[in-house]
Amino acid sequence: MHVAVAIVAYRNPEDVVRCLRALAGSAHTDFEVVICENGGPPAYEALKAVLRDPLPGGQPVHAVLASGNLGYAGGVNLCIRESAGADAWWVLNPDTEPSPNALARMAARLAAGDCDAVGNTLQFPSGKVQSHGGRWRAALARAVSIGYGAPLQPAPDPTGVEAAQNYLNGASMLVSRRFVETAGLMQEDYFLYCEEVEWCLRARAKGLRLGFAPDAVVLHEQGTSTGNAPSLKARSRVSVHLGERNRLLLTRDRYPALLAVAAAAALVLLVLRFGRGRAWRQLGWALQGWAAGMAGQRGAPPWA
User: Fold this and answer.
1) What per-residue string of b and e applies to 89-120 under the rule 16 or more CB within 10 Å gives b?
2) 194, 220, 246: which is the final residue of a domain?
3) Residue 22, Cβ neighbours under 10 Å: how many?
4) 287 and 192 co-located in one domain
5) What distance in Å separates the CA atoms of residue 15 and residue 34, rounded to the nearest whole number?
6) Which of 168, 196, 220 is the last residue in one of the domains?
7) Domain annotation covers residue 301
8) What is the pTM assigned to this prediction?
9) What is the tens place of the pLDDT at every residue in 133-190?
């Protein structure tokens, strides 16, 4: 199985180098790497200056300069188009470090033939689990990360995860050619956040299935280029605004009959969440994002 690793960068060459260093140790060696730099020509030149092409195992590394900041989905889609001959695509955040067997385990699960995309365990630097997969709660317009905060071991029952999840975490997801050809590409007007959830929900609506590789572990720093920090008070305007806005855009696109209920629930939850954390500036940004979602605004915010 020839895999194209799709990485979307934004002025963070150090993250990309660490990710590539981890990929160089992969037990699955039949892959190429395509990197979309969203940060403009100076960032593209800085990225090229630190890339090693090919990797020590001979895998090619190809960097592409985006025409502008395409957002996460636009960057992923560009990477897929640039590697059209691949059998599968591993959408991988630049701020990740996959374990040596991660791709091999995910590719083996995909090759079993009873699923069309595969997720894995994402691990925080603390050693705790970020997610094994995700469950979108449509009536609340909220995502639930399966296994969040649990110890890394023992590994979860894959059957249980696959039964519970309805989306894969976009920081690391392996999608087949059938998945892309049937579901289409990621929805670019979200710009950032929730696009992988919408992608998976759309794919499931078309009869595609999501798998899970329990022994594939990927370390995830989380939010190094977007400002989506673990601390509420440290979160950036773009991460807070788009996180709240896109919950409602996803509801509009996939569950329109639930928009009124989900919008009310999302409003209450965001006030409680940021209010309890005394993150007052972030609360203001969240309310602006909620209002933008209610207005159906899409794409990059004008101030971003």
Assistant:
1) bbbbbbbbbbbebbbbbbbbbbeeeebbbbbb
2) 220
3) 18
4) no
5) 15
6) 220
7) no
8) 0.95
9) 999 999 999 999 999 999 999 989 999 999 999 999 999 999 999 999 999 999 999 9
